[in-house]
Design goal:
Low-confidence stretches: none
Mean pLDDT: 88
Number of strands: 7
Number of helices: 5
CATH class of the largest domain: Alpha Beta
Oligomer: single chain
Order of helices and strands: HEEEHEHEHEEH
Radius of gyration: 21 Å
CATH superfamily of the largest domain: Glutaredoxin
CATH topology of the largest domain: Glutaredoxin
Strand content: 15-25%
Helix content: 40-55%
Length: 186
């Protein structure tokens, strides 16, 4: 008798686990959390130093020191990245607020392709660095695009988001942190 009921009990147990997982994911979505977010070991630490050529002017070297004293968003993107196209309107809207400097980090991209992409979709960035080889990206823990970091005026990483940004993430995570940083400095 038990041998006949065992498969049914296993099925019911698996169904309950599946439903619990679905319910938990919906709760996370209601709260605006992404359960696939990977915490960054950089949070609360100094941003890794970079010194990279500018995308528009490769003869100009741009480094973290150029942003000292002001918070900034570092947005990792590439012309080869379909999700970067998805988030581009949100990045453009964020830059248009003028509340924070938005720095582009062009990742493993051919400069001509990146410039053509910006010509097609617009360039919301204050400045863009080009990491063609992806060497500086290693220090940041970047493994794909899009990824976005918020760095405070002291050069500390305060937030990292993996995947495309949207208005909700910008409001709840980036602008809220910026408001908190501005409130703390007054």
């Amino acid at each position: 008798m038990f041998k006949r009921i065992l498969p049914l009990l296993v099925f019911v147990a698996l169904a309950v686990l599946l439903l619990a997982g679905i319910w938990m994911r919906k709760q996370d979505e209601k709260l605006g959390r992404n359960p696939s977010d990977i915490p960054s070991p950089l949070i609360g630490k100094k941003a890794p130093i970079f010194s990279l050529p500018g995308l528009h002017h490769p003869e100009t070297v741009i480094s973290n020191a150029d942003f000292a004293g002001t918070p900034y968003v570092l947005n990792v993107w590439g012309s080869w990245c379909p999700e970067c196209r998805t988030e581009h309107a949100a990045i453009t809207d964020l830059a248009a607020t003028g509340k924070i400097r938005v720095v582009g980090f062009n990742y493993k991209d051919e400069p001509a392709d990146a410039l053509r992409w910006l010509g097609q979709f617009g360039d919301p960035y204050t400045v863009i660095v080009a990491d063609v080889e992806g060497r500086s990206a290693i220090e940041w823990g970047i493994y794909g695009a899009p990824e976005t970091f918020v760095v405070d005026a002291a050069g500390m990483v305060v937030f990292k988001h993996i995947g495309p940004l949207n208005a909700k993430v910008i409001d709840r995570e980036i602008l809220a942190r910026l408001d908190a940083l501005n409130g703390a400095s007054q």
